[in-house]
User: Which sequence fits this backbone?
């Protein structure tokens, strides 16, 4: 989010009054945007200009005297205020507020305990924050925050994750694979627990990773599995035969983490910390919460699917009004050991950063999803500016629609063409899809902002982009945040 803030330049007017050039920003779109304020006596409208390279963001710089000021925006004939900035109810309705000190090198406070939940913005465009003015975080502050979070997670259980109402889908292991993936697509779910009637228990999960392996198997000229056989090939048969596939991620065989071995699950009384660690250690996206009324585990009842996003939502809700107990919460993510970053020129390459051009083959995208063990891959142009993402959970299962996978040659179809199969709405000028598909943030966004965005269902990674150009600078994922928070 662009934020109004004072830079370090102070101007001394002829009368000796110190004036502080202050940037005001409206980042929520419009055709014509004006600024009105107490410092113009609410009578003059100051025209704001679109930011170059980002037509939905308007800004203006106005020199103010130190002190307390109120302001609001006039957007396309309607009075508006920025809900993500401090605001009060005044004589002119709800107005934003700002306090400027006389001290140089100070960025005004920009958060308030009275601030409501943020709106659904794709990216916080906030390039003007003065990182040098942000206090350096100490290891003591990090440990204090981790200890508070650890205590919370250890003293709250999976019951916290259970919704008041909802829909759960489990699949019979004797269901044909083809039909199973149609169900995942039609229901819009990335994973489903598997039920074995003969054993009377849940035995595994079916996920988009299985579909990737099947697509690769179908594309393998030496495959014994044909598209026609998917009509009768059961989930059980696929799971049992998957370990015989000649496909590996590495020497540890991580690719086979979803086969018919013992199901990774949780009980309702398990602590949120134990569940989070189980998800991280087993490298799974979700863990079924299963309750059994008998000692031997018979007659199990599926209550819900636990995920890191659900646990993170509990953390955000609990600490929302006591953020002072988490000293790290207002730190920009670039100041924390968090996420995977694109190496700068001259830096040694650490963890590989996965990106693809829209002309890359679908085969390359599927291989990268598996090998990099990630949930999505940024799709970028020649300047590494973000165009779209290719997502394991949604874009893969989309191929199950009308058996589209039967018509696909993985090496010949491009990522761009594969995304078009999804027939998403709101295509942008590049032919790619904007909106909620591309979840983004800036390096200057606070850890709290990142956590709240990752707590939304279905969001597992945020692409860190440069404001304006949307050049990809890194990735921060749910697992990154939990590894950092849990130490």
Assistant:
């Amino acid at each position: 989010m662009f934020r109004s803030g004072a830079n370090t330049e102070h101007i001394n007017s002829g009368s000796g009054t110190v004036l502080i050039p202050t940037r005001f920003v409206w980042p929520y779109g419009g055709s014509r945007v004006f600024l009105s304020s107490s410092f113009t006596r609410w009578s003059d409208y100051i025209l704001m200009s679109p930011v170059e390279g980002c037509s939905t963001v308007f800004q203006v710089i106005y020199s103010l005297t130190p002190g307390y000021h109120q302001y609001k925006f006039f957007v396309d004939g309607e009075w508006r205020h920025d809900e993500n900035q401090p605001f009060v109810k005044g004589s002119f309705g709800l107005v934003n507020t700002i306090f400027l000190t006389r001290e140089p090198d100070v960025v005004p406070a920009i958060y308030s305990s009275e601030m409501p939940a943020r709106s659904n913005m794709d990216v916080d465009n906030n390039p003007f924050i003065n990182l040098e003015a942000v206090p350096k975080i100490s290891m003591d502050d990090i440990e204090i925050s981790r200890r508070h979070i650890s205590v919370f997670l250890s003293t709250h259980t999976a019951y916290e994750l259970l919704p008041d109402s909802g829909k759960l889908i489990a699949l019979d292991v004797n269901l044909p694979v083809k039909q199973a993936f149609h169900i995942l697509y039609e229901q819009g779910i990335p994973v489903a627990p598997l039920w074995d009637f003969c054993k009377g228990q849940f035995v595994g999960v079916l996920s988009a990773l299985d579909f990737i392996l099947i697509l690769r198997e179908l594309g393998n000229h030496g495959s014994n599995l044909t598209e026609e056989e998917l009509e009768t090939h059961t989930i059980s048969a696929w799971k049992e035969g998957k370990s015989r596939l000649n496909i590996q991620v590495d020497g540890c065989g991580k690719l086979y983490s979803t086969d018919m071995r013992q199901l990774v699950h949780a009980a309702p009384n398990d602590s949120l910390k134990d569940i989070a660690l189980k998800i991280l250690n087993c490298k799974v996206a979700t863990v079924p919460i299963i309750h059994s009324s008998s000692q031997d585990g018979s007659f199990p009842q599926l209550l819900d699917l636990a995920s890191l996003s659900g646990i993170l939502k509990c953390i955000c809700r609990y600490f929302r009004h006591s953020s002072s107990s988490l000293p790290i919460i207002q730190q920009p993510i670039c100041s924390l050991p968090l996420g995977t970053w694109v190496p700068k020129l001259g830096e040694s390459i650490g963890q590989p950063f996965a990106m693809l051009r829209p002309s890359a083959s679908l085969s390359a995208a599927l291989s990268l999803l598996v090998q990099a063990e990630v949930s999505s891959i940024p799709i970028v142009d020649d300047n590494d500016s973000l165009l779209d993402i290719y997502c394991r959970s949604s874009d893969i299962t989309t191929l199950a629609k009308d058996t589209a996978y039967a018509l696909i040659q993985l090496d010949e179809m491009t990522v761009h063409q594969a995304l078009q199969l999804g027939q998403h709405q709101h295509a942008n000028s590049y032919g790619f899809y904007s909106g909620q598909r591309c979840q983004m943030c800036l390096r200057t966004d606070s850890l709290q902002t990142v956590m709240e965005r990752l707590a939304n269902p279905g969001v597992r990674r945020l692409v860190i982009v440069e404001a304006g150009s949307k050049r990809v600078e890194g990735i921060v994922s749910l697992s990154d945040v939990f590894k950092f928070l849990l130490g």
